[in-house]
Amino acid sequence: MNIRFDFEKSSLCFDQPVSIIRCSSFQDVPLAFKKIEDALTRKFYVAGFFSYELGYAFEETFSSYNLNGFPLIYVGCYEKPHPDKDLFAGDHRAGTVKNMRWNISRDKYFEHIDIIRSYLQSGDVYQITYCLKILFDFQGNAFDLYKKLFSIQPVPYAAYIETDSYSIASLSPELFLYKKGSSILSKPMKGTWPRGRNFFSDIAARYQFYHDEKNRAENVMIADLLRNDLGRIGKNIHVPRLFEVTPYKKLFQMTSTVAADIEPDVPLYDVFKSLFPSGSVTGAPKIRAMEIIHDLEREPRNIYTGAIGYITPDKDLCVNIPIRTALINKTNGRGEMGIGGGIVWDSTAEGEWAEGILKARFFTDCLFCSEQKERSGSCEWGETP
After folding, report:
1. pLDDT tens digit string along 200-237?
2. pTM given for the model
3. CATH of domain 2-376
4. Are 24 and 70 in contact (CB under 8 A)?
5. Active site residues
6. Where on the phi/psi map is residue 95: left (φ > 0), alpha (ψ -120 to 50), or beta?
7. End-to-end CA distance of the chain
8. What Cα–Cα distance (Å) separates residue 66 from each residue in 5, 53, 63, 124, 276?
9. From CA 92, how far away is CA 141, in angstroms rounded?
10. Fewer CB within 10 Å, N- or C-terminus of the chain?
11. Domain boundaries, the chain
């Protein structure tokens, strides 16, 4: 299991694990966390991924949910990381992406948004983060795919993971948790807006986004949820930054920062039980939102909206939320990438569908449309599915 983190413009690589900690069932989760704690006590670093469905293990409500065999926890124990180490041999080509399609029809997506709006209208929930997937077939070197995507859209929390069974290319702009000593923070991301076509329209778009009531409402709602979750394990809960707008190549994103003081040696199981998955990928209230998500999405998210990161022997950690993340099965070449958005009362199916296409453009423009444009001179994928 080899891993490369490109977090905050700094590369950190892990290879040759002394052991792998993996579990695929709810009953094995406490033991897996105990093994992680034991590894840290022996001064190993722990790095890898936690799937979204791990969150089901922390609530009795979800104990009857079925799993598909994808790992809930998959981490390696390493003696130390290496900066800028070239771990992945490649042929310097991004490989071939074919047969790209949604996992759900546009009509069914619109139907689901209407169902979510009925829950919102009844007051059952205040927000639902609803997701669909891009499915595709892949041939080639997945690390070169990662490098190409990262060069097109640099993000602050990118990571690449290679296991025996999976390749994971995470181009994530969202920080889940950063803990150092007695301080911990999260940067929930809620709010998306297209960038302008030129300098002046870009300034106008940023201003409109910052003051947009819908996006601000989504953002503050999830920031409040994170404040509540951090309050379970920390104290002095505060919000240093609210409604920060960050530009990316195709879009703007809005984040807030929620921070707390915490015991340096707090058990990792308690951290994950209190905070995982992030409220930014579920909605509010979290448990009810996760129930609705399970009923509507009808297939596991797997790595998407889980967590990818590393933990030091001092129990400091840095973990992203794997959005904009491609998961490729090395056995059959089948790939998937989740795309999601927060649904509130004034959301529209048309608007959310368009936002999903916008979020996916870093992937689709690069890997599909360039080939189609060569053949037909236009790009239609995702616009009229």
Report:
1. 999 999 999 999 988 898 888 889 999 999 999 999 99
2. 0.91
3. 3.60.120.10
4. yes
5. 174, 190
6. left
7. 37
8. 31, 10, 8, 24, 19
9. 8
10. C
11. 2-376
